[in-house]
């Protein structure tokens, strides 16, 4: 908890320093320096994989497959063994298209 508070305080100081730097004026009175904003944060490859995996898990649940096992990557998709009406089968989940396809 203490390290979280320190990290939060450090982030606040960094933001305050950025805000201060953005409001300083140049040598002539009234001439403001241009505001330079950092580039938008781009998710890392790890973040993109985690987002797709979460989307796939959410799709399984949304389609009524609350009881599934063996969730794993299968190429660009994800596969899982699911139960429905007393039968067990494998489905492929494409989180990009939102499709869940029964296999075999």
What features would you highlight for this structure?
single chain; 104 residues; alpha+beta; 2 domains; 2 helices; 38% helix; rod-shaped
How does this structure look, described?
The structure is a single chain. The chain has 104 residues and is an alpha+beta fold. 38% of the residues lie in helices and 27% in strands. A four-stranded antiparallel beta sheet has the order 1-2-3-4, with helices on one face.
Summarize the model shown.
The protein is α+β, with helices and mostly antiparallel strands and 104 residues long. It is 38% helix and 27% strand.
Shape: rod-shaped
Residues in β-strands, percent: 25-35%
Integer average pLDDT: 76
Structural class: alpha+beta
> What is the gyration radius calculated from CA atoms?
24 Å
Summarize the topology.
Layout: H1 2-23, H2 45-62, E1 68-74, E2 77-84, E3 87-94, E4 99-103
Antiparallel strand pairs: 1-2, 2-3, 3-4
């Amino acid at each position: 908890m203490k390290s979280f508070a320190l990290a939060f305080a450090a982030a606040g100081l960094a933001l305050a320093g950025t805000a201060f730097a953005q409001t300083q004026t140049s040598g002539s009175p009234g001439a403001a320096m241009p505001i330079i904003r950092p580039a938008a944060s781009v998710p890392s490859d790890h973040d993109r994989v985690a987002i797709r995996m979460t989307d796939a898990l959410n799709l399984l649940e949304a389609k009524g497959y609350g009881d599934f096992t063996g969730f794993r990557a299968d190429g660009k998709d994800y596969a899982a063994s699911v139960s429905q009406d007393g039968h067990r089968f494998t489905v492929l989940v494409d989180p990009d298209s939102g499709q869940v396809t029964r296999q075999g």
